[in-house]
Amino acid sequence: MELRARNTCRLPVDYHRRTTIDLKRNRGFNLWVQGTAGAVAVLAIALGIRLELPAAATWGPLATTVLTILAGLCYLAAHELTHGLVLRWRTGVKPTYAVKFPFVTTGSPAYLNPGTTTFVALAPSLLWGAILLTALLLVPAELRLTLYILVVLNFAGSSGDYVEAAVALRQPPESLIRDDGKEIGIYRPRESDPATD
């Protein structure tokens, strides 16, 4: 019976790096991220058209655009802060944050099991998705377009998180995963992975 790995700050001595995914250079990973973002955005735009969201607010295009951009920047910060708070809660380790236009990333030196990695990856999308969808139902009509854009940004912009969660869920339970914001390292015990020895 295989045991689930425990989250840790230090890689156990019997573990070795099985795979590395460079978040900037890995073409396959980035194609999955871009494809997922594109698919979610297309579905969201189609749904927005179907729902007949107001195309303009009573404030005028400039005020609406400025409000939407500011709200988007606040959302990005809140999304990454949510990753960081969940990481800190699950590991006790202070996360790192970086801005690499057009991306904002959260990283950690901790090694997480696949379940925790999935939880950390999906928490912001699920939490902010619920908050934004609820707000969308409650705000005045002139704010709906801005809020809907934030909903789309939440779900389409979380595509990297979805792909990371999918990668984590494909790993055996004894695996450890480290996402430092630049690359994802997947580690396994040597005896569980004889093909790489």
Helices, by number, come to 5
The strands making up the biggest β-sheet line up spatially as 1-5-4
Which ranges are low-confidence, i.e. pLDDT below 50, for 5 or more consecutive residues? none
Radius of gyration: 19 Å
Organism: Corynebacterium hylobatis
Transmembrane segments: 31-49, 56-78, 119-139
Pfam families: DUF3267
InterPro entries: DUF3267 (IPR021683)
Write structural notes for this entry.
This is DUF3267 domain-containing protein. The chain has helices spanning 27-50, 61-91, 114-138, 141-157, 159-169; strands at 15-22, 96-100, 103-107, 176-179, 183-189. By secondary structure, the chain is α+β, with helices and mostly antiparallel strands. It has one domain (25-106, 114-173). The radius of gyration is 19 Å and the shape is elongated.
Structural features:
55% helix, alpha+beta, three-stranded antiparallel sheet, 5 strands, single chain, 197 residues, two-stranded antiparallel sheet
How are the SSEs placed, and which strands pair?
Blueprint: E1 15-22, H1 27-50, H2 61-91, E2 96-100, E3 103-107, H3 114-138, H4 141-157, H5 159-169, E4 176-179, E5 183-189
Antiparallel strand pairs: 1-5, 2-3, 4-5
Task: Provide a short characterization of the protein structure.
InterPro entries: DUF3267. The protein has 197 residues and is of the alpha+beta class. It contains 5 helices and 5 strands.
